[in-house]
Amino acid sequence: MQLGAKRWLIAAVLVAFGVSALSGYFNRYYLGIAIDVGISIILAVSLNLINGHTGQFSLGHAGFMAVGGFTAAKLTLELTPSVPAAAQPALFVGAMLAGGLVAALAGLAVGLPSLRLKGDYLAIVTLGFGEIIRVIFQTSPAFGAATGLTGIPKFTTLFWTWSAAALTVYVVASLVNSTYGRGFLCVHDDEVAAAAMGINPTRYKVTAFVTGAFFAGMAGALYAHHKQVLKPDGFDFMKSIDVVVMVILGGMGNTVGVILAAILLTVLPELLRGFADYRMIVYSLLIIGLMLLRPQGLFNLRRRESRSAAAN
Amino acid sequence: MNPFTHNSPAAAPKAPSVLCRSLATLIRVLPLVAISLLLALGSAGCSKKSDDVIKVGEFASLTGKEATFGTSSHEGTLLAIEELNATGGVLGKKIELITEDNLSKAGESGTVVTKLIDRDGVVAILGEVASSRSLEAAPICQRSQIPMISPSSTNPKVTETGDYIFRVCFIDPFQGTVMANFASKTLKAKKVAVFTDVKSDYSKGLAKYFKEGFTEAGGEISAELDFNGGDKDFKAQLTAIKTAAPDAVFVPGYYTDVALICIQAKQLGLNVPLFGGDGWESDDLIKIGKEAVEGNYFSTHYHPEVSSPKSKQFVEAYKKRFKNQDGSPKAPDAMAALGYDSAIILAEAMKRAGTTEGAKVRDALAAMKDFEGATGKTNINEKRDATKPAVILQVKGGVFKYVETISP
């Protein structure tokens, strides 16, 4: 299983590299959307680890994304002038990792006290956290206060985004499929039973939270260097909800489904531009329709397939 | 062997009938396939190619939390394009305005503007009201060498992005200077107190430039006090201001705070005029402040009463074209007038350049002087900002009355 996953990772990075090498021939509009798709995949897959696999309802993903984005953007804004052009990709990767790490620290700070809560209570705490993050950035002059950061260098390329997305999928999938990772599923299925089996639910929950926050922070860094402008307003509650919708539509705990949902929900609003003013109504109707047609998630074939195979 | 689903049991299915399984899969995925086909058809149908039109892109907040600003601005722009097309268009071609909504959301404007430039092939971009969203679009226009004109983003940073980015409104520092001129020339004030909202960059900026302008004009700042936006009690500071005995008080704040400040100033017997910037312009100022705001002044971009023939013509055309919900003619606000101006100044630049080529239109825009628009004469300065007159309004009888126009 590990071997299979690694093959996938290498294949995905190679594809990202290949496509990225040709990116000069693409229309920049489509290229931009491809990058948006990659960022959505990172966000959705990392939230899926928390919400889907571990079953903890978090509404603070936009907050972690903001932490990562602002940290990385501040770093590149400060350091780019003093770094030679050749070393700038390294600077970007460093900033991206720093963004992820600071977001992971934030995840730890929020997770330790609050993950003793369950269900709706946890959702409310994470929601509150997301708002606190936004307000902190909104009022701190070092991060541009309400205007946010502008003039961020355009470092994000298709290659970095898709590689990061592949890495996220790889880490989350192998983590969940490892012996250790089965603990996440136990916590998801029944906390009391898991504790009785010697699994420490809080530890697993915090691990999921910190890992998820790390990748959300990386997504934030990619986003910052893609849009070149960061405004605290962009990381409000609605942004978290967008990611939650991807996870629910894709099927909680189903990585392939969540990836498909992330692609679909990022591309769909663009495809619907022809509807002009009614775009968001059509978009919402389609989501409602999909939810009614496929309540088990967009791509939850495997579970039923194996069941039907067993029936055969 | 699929590593991506934890739900799969370790053993792979024995594959008794591959055909049966794939059929079942197909049926399950069918709704998805149908939807994607529908979408593909829908998006294919809306892209039309034609070379006999000039494509101009507009991005606006037509839905979302700032939809009122975006709609006003869009209506002004739309009116301008319709008028231009009715009189034969520009360079012998009609203008096709392609408008995209950014949902008032951060992150959307970049995508939308890239789409307008790279997929629709527009030759220029118009937008936006909010400075933050203009700042998102500006680097993209600059990189693509497509001229962008913002109708009403007042933050100085917007046009600092690059030499393809213009605006047709004045910037925050200018407004401070205008009010300094107004205080010394029209109010004939010698001593002015300044009362600043320290929470807002906008207020601090206006106060700074007001102080510089007013001392330069020979005036004296007799007191400087601060408040926090959202405060309810301003009496301590107002008492201090009263002790300093100024001829007038400059309050660069937003209308809700300003209304309370006006009420409490009257209660304390501080009977000198208060004046401020375009943050005052809201019907709520009168609703909250009532008679306490009477007689006070503020500066803004535009007023329907302004007596230039071009703006009268604009007001008439706008009232004819757009209606309120109850069917009565809609009076244009400052956003609509600036939206209108952004479009006609672009058309004028294309005429003067004789082409729609980005670099040439940019040069024509940069050289634009004394352009007569709905909001008065517009001059583009070396920073690609408009230096144009501001209008001073006074609250009189529960409405905003036009007082005078101050040229830079």
Question: Gist?
Answer:
The complex is a heterodimer of chains A (312) and B (408). Chain A is mostly helical.
**Number of individual domains of chain B:** 2
Highest CATH level, the class of the largest domain in chain B: Alpha Beta
CATH architecture of the largest domain in chain B: 3-Layer(aba) Sandwich
Number of strands of chain A: 0
CATH-defined superfamily of the largest domain in chain B: Response regulator
The oligomeric state is: heterodimer
Sequence of strands across the biggest β-sheet of chain B: 7-6-8-9-10-14-15
User: Strand fraction band of chain B?
Assistant: 15-25%
Question: Structural class per helix/strand content of chain B?
Answer: alpha/beta
Describe the structure.
The complex is a heterodimer of chains A (312) and B (408). By secondary structure, chain A is mainly α. Chain A is 74% helix and 0% strand. Chain A contains 13 helices and no strands. In chain A, helix 3 packs antiparallel against helix 4, helix 3 runs parallel beside helix 5 and helix 4 runs antiparallel to helix 9. The longest helix of chain A has 27 residues. Chain A is globular and about 55 Å long. The relative contact order of chain A is 0.18. Chain B has 408 residues and is α/β, with parallel strands linked by helices. Chain B folds into two domains: 192 residues, Response regulator (Rossmann fold), CATH 3.40.50.2300; 128 residues, 3-Layer(aba) Sandwich (Rossmann fold). Helices cover 44% and strands 18% of the residues of chain B. Chain B is built from 13 helices and 15 strands. In chain B, the strands form three sheets. Chain B has a seven-stranded mixed β-sheet with strand order 7-6-8-9-10-14-15, sandwiched between helices. Chain B has a five-stranded parallel β-sheet with strand order 2-1-3-4-5, sandwiched between helices. In chain B, strand 1, helix 2 and strand 2 form a beta-alpha-beta unit. The termini of chain B are far apart. The N terminus of chain B is likely disordered. Chains A and B meet through helix 1, helix 2, helix 6, helix 9 and helix 11 of A and helix 1, helix 3 and helix 4 of B.
